[in-house]
């Protein structure tokens, strides 16, 4: 409901802004009809400022990418960089230094976490929104309070617990502790509450069971929200560092983020191979960045931007 | 939530009485017209065995909640309570043997000047990150809000660091400002006249790590700031533009107060990030050094737990961090409702 009014407000805001600036600075009717930009000094300065800001934000990555195309940490001319060198670097980092394996592990971990979290949280949100049961508020509180227990707050016992369960170097340790998600349950609950009550009431009276209701009514009506939270979960999971660093010591089970640390150790024992390090960094960035770019629309909607 | 929520369709029958009360006579007639007498009879029959239905519904509800509650209990609440318990013990042999020391570990922390220093560094680090990331993202978001074309392109160019893995951000900065071979080192030295030597200069190391941490956090802040600005009513925007005051005083005097709930939310989230989400930066860039200049609390905790195997002391540090996150969460819930810990 609130999203609707927001979009309206946005639409109004931008059209009226276009109309007023366009009307003042230029008198061409085309300006109003096509919404061509009014290029006054303030607008130009805003664009210049934005271009500068986003360029500075991209600069470290651009340099890292350039370095990964060469053989040394420094280069004086672009001729020192070549596609063949890049191919060699990326090949080495993926296969000789096992980043490929780490990436696969990260990918598997993240996919399991996304699907598992989503399944578990959908069931919990279904119960919280569509069921009457005693201690509902208390249960919801217990779920929300887990926000106050990030990994560092329970790190030593969690490590011991996972070790006692025999989970060291396993996907179980990398994924199961993440499956309970206050954020996901909360967001799904908010979304379910925004689905018109009349709709769900007739679902009940037509005798639809809860799981069919979830599968055929709620999930289809929540596609955008589910896509958005999946992106949040994927990026969050891919970017885990401390927990994999602790619970995995078998290199073949390591994830990409910690793989960068291993890469640092491996290549630094010989010559410092910064091009390889930068290649490793770039490949580690690619999957979450691709997910962000591909799913930016549902992600931004979930965050309330559009 | 005060009145009964009609969405609660499971967990027992809706009941004819409640049905009438909620839909009113006209609603009920409309329902009868739509679903016929059979639907109504079914509804009433369910009401007839309401106790059984209710019990079944309640057990199904708890069954649906079971995975979340089980994982929360085993991997969140139990380890947290265990950390509290451990914090009252001294541990030997990798935690194999425990001796009750009461508040001994906390006394150690209170009297340890190294820990005091770590706390002070963490607070300074969090303040630097919060102020830095919010200033930059407020300016970028406001410019983004003001331009009338190219917004979606700028938006993606400004939010992508949300996906940036901390280890990648840390390694890239380690290289860029590497004292001997960094690409930007000479540029910085030329521009500031400083000698870049953050491998031995604690102050410089602190700021290099903070800048890398700020870089990573910009995307998240731009997302929320743009969302908040987009929610400013159109009439206010027009009034602000007609007033003819400059862009920056418009931002500070009109928009910042209007979006202050979001800004407070971001202060809390960025503080939590600086306390808990920056471990990879420290681990890859400085290892807490030089001379403890970047030894933030989470890194100190990690070292005590897994390098020195001092589990009791590390758990006491966990409890301190729990207190920090509790206060931050309380502030957020108390002063800005409707928000939640996105991305955790």
Automatic annotation (TrEMBL), chain A:
Compartments reported by the entry: Cell membrane
ABC transmembrane type-1 domain segment(s): 103-295
GO process annotations (BP): transmembrane transport
Xref: PROSITE patterns: ABC_TM1 (PS50928)
Membrane topology: Multi-pass membrane protein
InterPro entries linked: MetI-like, MetI-like_sf
One Gene Ontology cellular component: plasma membrane
Keywords, sorted A to Z: Cell membrane, Membrane, Transmembrane, Transmembrane helix, Transport
Presence of keyword Magnesium: no
Annotated transmembrane regions: 48-69, 107-131, 138-159, 171-192, 213-236, 272-295
Low complexity bias spans: 1-21
Entries under Pfam families matching the protein: BPD_transp_1
Listed SUPFAM superfamilies: MetI-like
Region (Disordered) residue spans: 1-25
Keyword Cell membrane: yes
Family according to the record: Belongs to the binding-protein-dependent transport system permease family.
Protein name listed in UniProt: Carbohydrate ABC transporter membrane protein 2, CUT1 family
Native species: Natronobacterium haloterrestre
UniProtKB/TrEMBL annotation, chain B:
Annotated membrane topology: Multi-pass membrane protein
Highest taxon listed in the record's lineage: Archaea
Listed PROSITE patterns: ABC_TM1
Recorded GO CC terms: plasma membrane
GO-annotated biological processes: transmembrane transport
Membrane-spanning ranges: 59-78, 119-145, 154-177, 205-229, 254-276, 312-331
Occurrences of domain ABC transmembrane type-1 (ranges): 119-332
Record's subcellular location: Cell membrane
SUPFAM superfamilies assigned: MetI-like
Keywords linked to the UniProt accession: Cell membrane, Membrane, Transmembrane, Transmembrane helix, Transport
Keyword hit for Transmembrane helix: yes
Keyword Cell membrane included in the entry's annotation: yes
Gene3D superfamilies membership: MetI-like
Family: Belongs to the binding-protein-dependent transport system permease family.
Stored PANTHER family: ABC TRANSPORTER PERMEASE PROTEIN, INNER MEMBRANE ABC TRANSPORTER PERMEASE PROTEIN YCJO
This protein's name: Carbohydrate ABC transporter membrane protein 1, CUT1 family
Naturally occurring in which organism (per UniProt): Natronobacterium haloterrestre
Lineage, highest ranks first: Archaea, Methanobacteriati, Methanobacteriota, Stenosarchaea group, Halobacteria
């Amino acid at each position: 409901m609130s999203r609707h009014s927001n979009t309206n407000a946005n639409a109004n805001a931008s059209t009226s802004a276009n109309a007023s600036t366009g009307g003042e600075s230029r008198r061409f009717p085309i300006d109003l009809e096509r919404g061509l930009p009014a290029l006054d000094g303030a607008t130009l300065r805003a664009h210049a400022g934005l271009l500068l800001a986003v360029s500075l934000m991209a600069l470290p990555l651009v340099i890292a990418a350039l370095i990964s195309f060469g053989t040394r940490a420094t280069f004086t001319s672009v001729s020192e960089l070549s596609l063949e060198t890049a191919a060699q670097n990326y090949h080495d980092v993926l296969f000789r230094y096992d980043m490929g394996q780490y990436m696969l592990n990260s990918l598997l971990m993240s996919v399991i976490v996304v699907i598992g979290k989503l399944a578990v949280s959908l069931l919990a949100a279904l119960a919280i929104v569509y069921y009457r049961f005693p201690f509902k508020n208390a249960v919801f509180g217990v779920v929300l309070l887990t926000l106050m227990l990030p990994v560092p707050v329970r790190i030593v016992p969690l490590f011991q617990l996972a070790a006692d369960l025999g989970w060291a170097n396993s996907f179980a340790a990398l994924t199961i502790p993440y499956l309970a998600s206050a954020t996901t349950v909360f967001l799904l609950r908010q979304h379910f509450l925004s689905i018109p009550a009349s709709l769900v009431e007739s679902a009940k009276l037509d005798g639809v069971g809860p799981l069919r209701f979830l599968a055929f009514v709620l999930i289809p009506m929540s596609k955008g929200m589910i896509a958005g939270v999946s992106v949040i979960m994927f990026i969050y999971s891919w970017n885990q560092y401390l927990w994999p660093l602790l619970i995995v010591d078998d290199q073949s089970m390591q994830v990409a983020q910690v793989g960068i640390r291993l890469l640092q150790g491996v290549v630094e024992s010989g010559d410092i191979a910064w091009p390889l390090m930068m290649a490793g960094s770039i490949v580690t960035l690619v999957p979450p960045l691709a997910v962000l770019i591909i799913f930016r629309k549902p992600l931004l909607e979930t965050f309330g931007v559009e | 939530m005060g009145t009964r929520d009609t969405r609660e369709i499971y967990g027992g029958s809706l009941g004819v009485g409640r049905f009438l009360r909620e839909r009113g006579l006209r609603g009920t007639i409309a329902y009868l017209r739509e679903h016929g007498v059979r639907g109504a009879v079914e509804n009433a029959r369910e009401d007839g065995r309401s106790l059984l239905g209710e019990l079944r519904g309640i057990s199904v509800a708890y069954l649906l909640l079971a995975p979340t509650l089980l994982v929360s209990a085993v991997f969140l609440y139990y380890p947290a309570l265990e950390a509290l318990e451990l914090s009252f013990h001294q541990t030997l042999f990798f935690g194999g043997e425990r001796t009750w020391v009461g508040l001994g570990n906390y006394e150690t922390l209170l009297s340890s000047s190294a820990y005091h220093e770590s706390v002070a560094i963490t607070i300074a680090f969090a303040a630097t990150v919060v102020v830095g990331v919010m200033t930059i993202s407020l300016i970028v978001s406001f410019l983004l809000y003001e331009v009338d074309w190219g917004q979606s392109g700028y938006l993606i160019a400004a939010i992508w660091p949300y996906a940036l893995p901390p280890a990648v951000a840390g390694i890239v900065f380690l290289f860029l400002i590497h004292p001997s071979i960094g690409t930007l080192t000479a540029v910085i030295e030329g521009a500031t006249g400083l000698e870049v030597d953050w491998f031995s200069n604690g102050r410089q190391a602190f700021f290099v790590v903070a800048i890398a941490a700020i870089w990573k956090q910009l995307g998240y802040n731009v997302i929320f700031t743009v969302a908040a600005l987009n929610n400013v009513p159109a009439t206010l925007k027009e009034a602000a533009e007609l007033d003819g005051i400059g862009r920056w005083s418009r931002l500070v005097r009109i928009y910042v107060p209007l979006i202050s709930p979001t800004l407070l939310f971001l202060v809390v989230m960025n503080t939590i990030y600086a306390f808990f989400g920056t471990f990879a930066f420290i681990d890859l860039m400085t290892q807490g050094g030089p001379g403890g200049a970047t030894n933030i609390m989470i890194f100190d905790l990690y070292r005590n737990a897994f390098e020195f195997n001092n589990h009791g002391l590390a758990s006491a540090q966990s409890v301190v961090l729990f207190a920090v996150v509790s206060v931050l969460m309380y502030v957020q819930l108390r002063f800005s409702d409707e928000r939640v810990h996105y991305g955790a």
